[in-house]
Amino acid sequence: MKGFFRWFRAGTKMKRWMFLILLGMIIAFFGLSRILVGGEGGRLDFLPLAGYIACFVVGFLFVIIGIIHIQKRTLELFVQETDARLDDENVNVKSLIYNKKVYDQGPKIVAIGGGTGLNSVLKGLKEYTDNLTAIVTVSDYGEIIPESRRILKTMPLDDIKESIVALSDNEVEMEKFMNYNFREASLRDLSLGDIALLGMKDFMGGDLTKSVVEASEIFKITGKVLPVTLEPIQICAELEDGTVVESRDKIAEAVTTKTSKISRIFINPTNCKVAPGVLKAIEEADAIVIGPGSLYTNVIPNLLVQGVAKAIRESKAFKIYVSNLMTEPRTNR
């Protein structure tokens, strides 16, 4: 109980907002009750009705304003109690909150997956912590190799680029940068993002993981992005009737057009090694988020890379699986 009453001390500045919420509820309920009861015969003239509606709206706004300021003040109190940097007289609690400095000490979160599902999770998590690591699938989406990748002879980088976009401060501009295709004849069909990552890879001595991490620092994104492996992998599916689908983008179509469902998912090569930094990130994580996204093409392939599933099992982190809202056709029967 002692901890509860601490919220009512003069220095906490909470009582005023609690009072505002209480006052707002009284005003709102009064207006609503008068509207429901009505006047004589259950009817209200326009002016009294407008007054009661205004009364309800004002009361509702008081409640919302009170809740917002209580949450804001709660965050300030939390920072005051936990952030050692406030020992410096020149540091203001509001500057720590609104400049996101407090996020540097946020929980270490690892997000595993690929595609738009993973990127949606990253966009949300980056608002709460800077200690965020995205572990991303490295695989082609189809049989047709993009022209930019064919010319530059790079690994599949689509998911890596999209995760960098998701973690950037200005997602719109970063997406334009990463997906910009040159129009000049000598550079036509080349993606600026592919060229940037390839150049960074050469600069870092051919190490893709270091190049992606370095690019993340240059682009000033929140957290970092790691490929799950340094080898391009092919995602394959074996159906219960024995059919083997060896193209990532054909798996859903094959299952839909056949009467057989998926028996297992496997990757080629089966013995691909995990990229440097991936297992360490999982080991040090406070929370591991897997998904959402296609279970068979964006989630499971990451777990099939040597050492990843074992590291997740042995990790003491809080583990979260984010399921899709809808199942894919005929795959999860």
Write a structural description.
It is a single chain. The chain is of the alpha/beta class. 48% of the residues lie in helices and 11% in strands. The protein has 14 helices and eight strands. The strands form two sheets. The protein has a five-stranded parallel sheet, sandwiched between helices. A three-stranded antiparallel sheet has the order 5-4-6, covered by helices on one side. Helix 12 runs parallel beside helix 14.
Structural class based on helices, strands and sheet pairing? alpha/beta
Q: Low-confidence parts, pLDDT < 50 over ≥5 residues?
A: none
CATH topology of the largest domain: Rossmann fold
| Helical run tally | 14
CATH superfamily of the largest domain: CofD-like domains
Give a brief rundown of this model.
The protein has helices at 2-5, 15-37, 46-82, 93-98, 115-125, 147-152, 158-167, 171-178, 192-203, 208-218, 251-257, 278-284, 295-304, 308-314; strands at residues 109-113, 132-136, 224-227, 234-239, 244-245, 262-268, 287-290, 318-321. By secondary structure, the protein is α/β, with parallel strands linked by helices. It is elongated.
Present the secondary structure layout.
Layout: H1 2-5, H2 15-37, H3 46-82, H4 93-98, E1 109-113, H5 115-125, E2 132-136, H6 147-152, H7 158-167, H8 171-178, H9 192-203, H10 208-218, E3 224-227, E4 234-239, E5 244-245, H11 251-257, E6 262-268, H12 278-284, E7 287-290, H13 295-304, H14 308-314, E8 318-321
Parallel strand pairs: 1-2, 1-7, 2-3, 7-8
Antiparallel strand pairs: 4-5, 4-6
Helix pairs in contact: 2-3, 5-7, 7-8, 9-10, 12-14
